[in-house]
Specification:
The structure is a homodimer of 509-residue chains. By secondary structure, chain A is α/β, with parallel strands linked by helices. Chain A contains 14 helices and 15 strands. Helices cover 33% and strands 21% of the residues of chain A. Chains A, B: It holds the Pfam family tRNA-synt_2.
Chain lengths: 509, 509
């Protein structure tokens, strides 16, 4: 940035002259409109008196980068007793406002933080100015100048409890339409158990107005925690010298099997790699835990002699994530807990590993009728989660050695019992968050298995061929990002942990 | 991992019994085959003599996680003088092999590192064993045990120059097919200027056999550096409290404009955010710098009064990336330089910012004929890059204030001259790597601009609506990951920096 604003060059260009004029006019029109609104706003409230504070409030023209201002704006979260009696500028949303005689209380919000502001008639503030402040629509963005003042009694309803802001200037930067499709207070209220029968907001209304729903302190916390999951995942693996790779999403065989296949073919080029990638699911996304589109945190790793080397790494990575969330994101966890109460997430070190036959035995003992090589249904998974929690006191465990029959063709069969396989799922609070396996690295066995399962060999030729020039034994798995966030926080619908969820019924916003 | 291998449960399940038996048989068959091969290998080379070393080499059965071995395998890169006279186990690929009388030299490779190995007839090694080693196909994966020995003369052809490995055991873990579709030495040779006229490998052959091409030290270095770009991007932004978000790829309006639109709508929910996302391009991917699919490192940020606040952040982030690459990835840079020689990447602090009219003036002075509001053609961009380099000695600069006519509808017009806009591109070595702008945050102006450009308002309704409830002024941009890697390293084709590139002619591998 070595150059200042030059203000552009004015030259006569016949083609664009007309368009330029038109735009100039529009800009002028917009400016005039803003001016008029500001004037109206002040006049409306002025009555007969001359307004001595009329330059201290108003609606500003749209910020179009007209000028560079050196003004320092502070963050709401920095407003504590240490700033008492200082004059500060602040940009924030009007969270709520409440007028009362000669004063108006505004709660000013920035992401998860809010502070109480007070506009009260006095030396700098006129009656008209209080009225103007009281009329600002909720969710509007304002610039305010004010003095930070210590309060005698903690303000329980705000994140900044020890101070309030005595506002002396207030300008609207971007006005919200007066009628909001949902109220933030409603959207943050616990759904069950509000004795006073106050309103809550249902899931569809939330998602139709996701832009506003994402502004609740609960949503802000959920997505900050989710960013934490991504960051902890990478931190842990980078420390272990894994390499991040980007794999293509456009693949020639568009089947789900095809997608899985493609990922795996990479593993021979690097011994340890991870990637954060977008997965697309063609069907079955109408449940509480499925989305048409989700984010997968993938790990693939060459091992030396036994795929448990990889299982240990993956489970260890998840444990690092759980610890990091607990240690760094307590504020977010507590905030979400207020709306969606939940027990803290429990895990063991080392991670509990059960084998499939043991799980079947536990379920049978609990009265479930099922075959030994049958996959777990969702209710059975959940029941198993409860049984494991009772017996081992953990919300996280590995289920190893799935029946070969219920896994994809590229899964390595168990060397000792071909009914089973070197594959595993991992569970959080009784729901699957990762599926993985030792992958077959021998092109002949891979071909045989594909043929046995009736797969068209031509379609997976480039996958099979990728193993012809020396391939190390390897295993891996994909962690569902939205599920980890949901289950760590004990939420009940994956749409809460996807910013703009996609399912068969939803493509917008 | 609290439980050992139980070996599975054997129960009679009528449906799967047959399949199980079949698999068992196959496994036995595979084992027998391996055994036979091993025997054959040793017999072939045995001649008449009894082989005293016959247990010290061979082809092992496929690793199916039969057993857990405590054996420690060392990394090639740790083989230095300090390990002299130690016995080590190593798993690596056979990079090259050369037999010479009673001895065989093997170069053993792991990613970017390699070491010379020697199998020589002696107390532990038989003639037959040397012959076996000499016959192992290149790219096969082997386990070797050997003694690390200091060498008198540096081994110039290997990364580990001060030691070699005197091999006493060698087992093939995964055999490569004897005929490789391309030779790694050829694939690593500088394309121009090989006086001896030795073979090089063309781009299509490389991409058809990307699995092998990715094994060259050049490729390994390119993708390690690329992972570095991602890591530095995140590190820099996380320090500044940006929040990582995941935006959906499935959007209802599938046009390129639509894709751009969608991203932007997020910015109102969080003041500073970044994401690493996959972008898809519908057309124009036949050039040296376009791909059908590429990775975008996106930044969106609310600003206070002027979009240059954002421009400064983005340029600063890129400068942090350049510095980090220079300081942390010198090995990779040097390795790529050996095959593709190139000048070190130059940049200024603060970053040079030019305005569009200045660029047009420079080009006109250099003899280019163009209109003031005309976009830059690719040749003109490159020429401008050379002119800027001459005048300012930098490979990185910002071109600010593009004509409004050549930017999308959601671009904020310049407040002082409506022919121009608050938008910018950033360039590395004369090629665009980022495009960005202040986005219009006023729903009315947004609607007007869309109508002026003949865009169907219905299709972007949810985008426009997202600005109705208070939206801060904001700006952002998208960095093309593959382009940054390509241009930082001075490479000439973007297919070299995409692991599995996709263009209109290529969907596999």
């Amino acid at each position: 940035m070595t150059k200042g604003e030059s203000g552009g060059v004015q030259e006569d260009q016949p083609q664009s002259k007309k368009a330029a004029k038109k735009l100039q006019k529009e800009a002028e029109k917009a400016a005039k409109k803003a001016e008029k609104q500001a004037k109206l706003a002040s006049e409306n409230q002025a009555g007969d008196e001359e307004d001595f504070a009329k330059d201290r409030y108003g609606i500003l023209p749209m910020i179009q980068s007209q000028e560079k201002l050196d003004r320092v704006l502070v963050h709401v979260k920095t407003l504590t007793e240490e700033k008492a009696d200082q004059v500060v500028w602040l940009r924030s949303r009007v969270h709520t406002s409440r007028a009362k005689g000669k004063q108006c209380f505004l709660v000013l919000r920035q992401q998860q933080f809010n502070v109480q502001g007070l506009v009260a008639v006095g030396d700098h503030v006129s009656k008209q100015m209080v009225k103007f402040a009281a009329n600002i629509s909720k969710e509007s963005i304002v610039d305010v100048e004010g003095i930070v003042r210590k309060v005698d009694q903690k303000i329980e309803s705000c994140s900044q409890q020890d101070v309030e802001l005595h506002i002396e200037k207030i300008y609207v930067i971007s006005a919200a339409e007066p009628r909001l499709p949902l109220q933030l207070e409603d959207a943050m209220r616990p759904e069950a158990g509000d004795e006073e029968g106050r309103a809550t907001v249902n899931q569809d209304t939330r998602l139709d107005n996701r832009i506003i729903d994402l502004r609740t302190m609960t949503s802000q916390s959920i997505f900050r925690l989710q960013a934490g999951v991504c960051q902890l995942f990478r931190e842990t693996l980078i420390k272990k010298e894994f390499v991040e790779v980007q794999t293509p999403k456009i693949i020639s065989a568009a089947s789900e099997g095809g997608a899985n296949v493609f990922t795996v073919s990479l593993s021979i080029s690097q011994s340890m790699k991870y990637s954060l990638k977008f997965m697309f699911r063609a069907e079955d996304s109408n449940t509480h835990r499925h989305l048409t589109e989700f984010v997968g945190l993938d790990i693939e790793m060459a091992f030396n002699y036994h795929y448990h080397e990889v299982v240990t790494e993956i489970a260890g990575t998840l444990v690092q994530i759980f610890k990091g969330l607990r240690d760094r994101h307590q504020t977010e966890i507590q905030t979400v807990c207020k709306q969606y109460p939940c027990e803290p997430f429990k895990f063991l070190e080392p991670t509990l590993r059960l084998e499939f036959p043991e799980a079947v035995a536990m379920l049978k003992e609990a009265g479930v009728e099922m075959g030994d090589e049958e996959d777990l249904s969702t209710p059975n998974e959940k029941l198993l989660g409860r049984l494991v929690k009772e017996k081992y006191d953990t919300d996280f465990y590995i289920l190893d050695k799935y029946p070969l029959a219920v896994r994809p063709f590229y899964t390595m069969p168990d060397p000792h019992d071909p009914k089973y396989s070197n594959s595993y799922d991992m569970f959080m609070r009784g729901e699957e968050i990762l599926s993985g396996a030792q992958r077959i690295h021998d092109p002949q066995l891979l071909t045989d298995r594909a043929l046995q399962l009736g797969i068209d060999i031509e379609k997976i030729k480039s996958y099979i061929d990728s193993f012809r020039y020396g391939a190390p034994p390897h295993a891996g798995g994909g962690i569902g990002l939205e599920r980890v966030t949901m289950l760590y926080l004990g939420l009940h619908n994956i749409r809460q942990t996807s910013m703009f969820p996609r399912d068969p019924k939803r493509l917008t916003p």
